[in-house]
Amino acid sequence: MLGRRRKDGEGRGLRALWLELGIPLGVLLAAVVADSLLPRDIIITAVFAIAPFVASALTSPARTAAIGALSVVAVGVSALWNHDVGTAEWWIRLLGGVLFAVIAVLVARMRVRREQALQHMTVVAETAQRALLRGVPARVGSVGLAARYVSATEAALVGGDLYEVADTPYGVRVVIGDVRGKGLDAVHLASTVLAAFRRAAFVNRVLAGVTRDLDDAVSAVCGDEDFVTALVAEFRHDGTGAVVNCGHLPPLLLRSGRRPSRLDGAEPTPPLGLGGRPAEEPFDWPGGSRILLYTDGLVEARNRQGAFFPLDDHVAELCTGTVDEALDRLLGLLRAFSAGQGDDLALVLAERSRPVPGAEDQ
């Protein structure tokens, strides 16, 4: 397996090298052939300088210099069919080819330095984003878990949506939310919610107290028009649970062979940051059932005809296989349906293990 991966990597490297060198060499060869076939009074050797500039956009400075050297040699050799070796015009074209080759190498060096700086910044940003949005454990006691995040911004791993899981003395607590707006401000507000949750989930015995702490944290940093829709859930190992909904989409309770039910019995309170005081809604969680928490990037995705993603038509896909496999299938269906990811998307799928006969829940 390792040998195959190494061969695949070498194959991709060779293809990239042929692309980087083949295009500028092809441009140079085409220009040389054209110059040799044109009438003697039409000289286009200046076009040879295009090759090193093409190379400067594709390959390293050293390879750009090699292409530039070949273009200068081609200018010199062109005297054989243009019959002007040693003339002032020939020397001007030759020196011009050298100048253009040097400029192309400098352009290549600037491009490579910018790419290296961008790559460094990308690594730093990805590290910070991964620290912000951590992975979830595959299992906590009787609760199986899986989570997925899809950013609407191709260059970013995370945006304004958020999720977090905490294994607390009161049960497995999960928060999922959607920050109003996008960009760095949304990421900053999402980080505020996550930091507050990581503390509040452990110090508040009552789930509604967790959301009150989150609301206070958001209110302290957000602007007049900023808010966060959020849902906090608690999964207990005795087969019960509770949710507190702060202006968010209600989670789905999924049981194989049955229609999904939405856990939206309590009246949703205003989003975080608007001073709401939410109520806790308890629910029963039978063994083998699953609960899907999601943000509006799932149900508001549209196809090319403008229709919304029909989540209820695909809930059966969430009831089979592992929770990881179920979320991957759902995302595959979403990608096949939608014309493009228009909004950030966060998903958390939780499953309560079926109780073993004669044994107590953990």
Task: Please provide a written account of the structure.
With 362 residues, this protein is an alpha+beta fold. It has helices spanning 2-37, 50-56, 61-77, 79-82, 88-132, 184-203, 207-221, 296-299, 323-337; strands spanning 139-140, 143-150, 161-168, 171-179, 228-235, 240-246, 252-254, 261-262, 281-284, 290-294, 345-352. The chain contains nine helices and eleven strands. It has a six-stranded antiparallel sheet. Strands 3-4-5-6-9 form a five-stranded antiparallel sheet, covered by helices on one side. 36% of the residues are buried. The model is unreliable at 1-6 (pLDDT under 50).
Summarize the structure.
This protein has 362 residues and is an alpha+beta fold. The chain contains 9 helices and 11 strands.
User: How many strands, which pairing sense, and closed or not: the largest β-sheet?
Assistant: 6 strands, antiparallel
- Alpha carbon gap, first and last residue: 40 Å
Query: Could you tell me the strand content as a percent range?
Result: 15-25%
Secondary-structure arrangement, i.e. CATH architecture of the largest domain: 4-Layer Sandwich
Protein name: Serine/threonine-protein phosphatase
GO molecular function: phosphatase activity
Region (Disordered): 257-283
Keywords: Hydrolase, Membrane, Transmembrane, Transmembrane helix
